[in-house]
């Protein structure tokens, strides 16, 4: 916000322009620009080049409605129905967690682990928007990717994102979207080279659930309704039976959970257990390699 007072926006006096709407907005400038370009179908630079153009009344009304919803707390990504992740534009609805930039670390780490494996099999548990699975599939066209979620509404969003963002002729084929409570509905015979997940890891009583965007995101994508580690325990416990020899498991977690994750991974039969920090310097993901001595059902 600027400290010069906003000019009055009387629609009868002079037609509203992008300049005037942005100047009068109570929102952080970036958010106001995202909402306005969404309404107008403009690129960000056109807010400058066409800033003094009179706008259609219907567009002004649509913008004002979105602005009011944002002021009331609704996430920008839900208002515009999209969020960029790993260079791809994902559809977002209230049924899915909004992709976060720190989750790109999970994608990059999985990609590094798969570097020398041709046609790797990858499993994303609790896929939500499909952001992790689709980003991996997009970067590794040869990968065979499974994306699971227990929410049918989330899977529908993920499947649309996969269909829109992936090349239908990619050698790895289409991503397999499957409704499943963690591993439950998965074909028991398939062995994966990498399992990745951004599970609900917020403890049920955490006050963050009542703040910001989280208030509008699906609760089941955020909290396990327990201590924050129950989904993570289930994922780690089921992973050895699903991983191929030398397969990796990487899980995103909360800022204070890295030590617990490393202990669970070590106890669960994983070797080379480590955590990685996100751009904010927070230990954000932990993972390991299935150690050769661990039974993975292949005897
Ligand atoms: N990273 C999210 C947040 O704390 C939580 C996502 C999750 O629970 N997987 O805002």
Automatic annotation (TrEMBL):
One GO MF term attached to the UniProt entry: peptide chain release factor N(5)-glutamine methyltransferase activity
SUPFAM superfamilies found in the cross-reference section: S-adenosyl-L-methionine-dependent methyltransferases
Pfam family, one: PrmC_N
Species, as recorded: Paraburkholderia sejongensis
Residue intervals of the Release factor glutamine methyltransferase N-terminal domain: 18-81
Binding site for substrate: 198-201
Function summary: Methylates the class 1 translation termination release factors RF1/PrfA and RF2/PrfB on the glutamine residue of the universally conserved GGQ motif.
Listed name of the protein: Release factor glutamine methyltransferase
